[in-house]
TrEMBL record:
The lineage of its organism: Bacteria, Pseudomonadati, Pseudomonadota, Gammaproteobacteria, Pseudomonadales. Keywords: Membrane, Transmembrane, Transmembrane helix. Residues 22-137 form the VTT domain. This is DedA family protein. It comes from Pseudomonas quercus. The chain crosses the membrane at residues 12-34, 40-61, 122-142, 158-176.
Length: 200
């Protein structure tokens, strides 16, 4: 049943998950590939396209509507200010590596677009970054299953537990982000205004 469900919807869910955020669903897909429910090469390929397409979209939205997007949420405004500081110091390095930095994944492409980073250069370096991210994280999750099998013997009897723990970790990270966002919003409200947008 799980095998049929993943054949029908697994890769679509992976694409959508990596389009919007990505880490947790790619780790889950990598582990499921180890268990034989998905193909690891397809997992990495779909994750690459999902991540690449999502970050291209956020970049172009940042170029056109960056300040308005960041101003919508106090947390985004604060993170956007921090992201712009990083980009101005080491632009190419951040385009290549922002996917690996927790908490900046969504805001960073918007800030990169807002910063005036060249579109063709972003098209290329964002592709390289997406490829490295999808291969590294997909392979890490796949080999995580192999390590578990060496430690526990057959993973089959534990796979639902492992999937449950991975899902709980993903939900925990999502809740943590929401709590941080609420705190930032409260602080901005108490201060009586949103943080000032950075000067270009």
């Amino acid at each position: 049943m799980l095998h049929q469900f993943l054949n029908d919807f697994g890769y679509l869910a992976l694409f959508l998950g990596t389009f919007f955020e990505g880490e947790t669903i790619l780790v889950l897909a990598g582990f499921l590939a180890f268990r034989g429910y998905m193909d690891i090469n397809l997992v990495m390929l779909v994750a690459f396209f999902g991540s690449y397409a999502g970050d291209q979209l956020w970049y172009f939205l940042g170029r056109r509507h960056g300040r308005r997007l960041l101003a919508r949420k106090p947390r985004w405004q604060t993170l956007g200010d921090r992201a712009l500081e990083h980009i101005r110091k080491h632009p190419d390095l951040w385009v290549l590596s922002f996917r690996f930095v927790y908490g900046l994944r969504t805001v960073m492409p918007v800030a990169i677009g807002l910063s005036g980073y060249p579109p063709r250069r972003y098209l290329l370096l964002n592709g390289i970054g997406a490829a490295v991210w999808s291969i590294a994280l997909g392979q890490a999750a796949y080999h995580f299953g192999s390590v578990l099998e060496r430690l526990l013997g057959s993973v089959k009897k534990y796979e639902l537990w492992v999937l449950g723990i991975l899902l709980l970790l993903g939900v925990g990270l999502w809740i943590t982000r929401r709590i941080k966002a609420a705190r930032i919003a409260r602080k901005a409200e108490q201060a009586g205004k949103l943080p000032e947008p950075p000067a270009q």
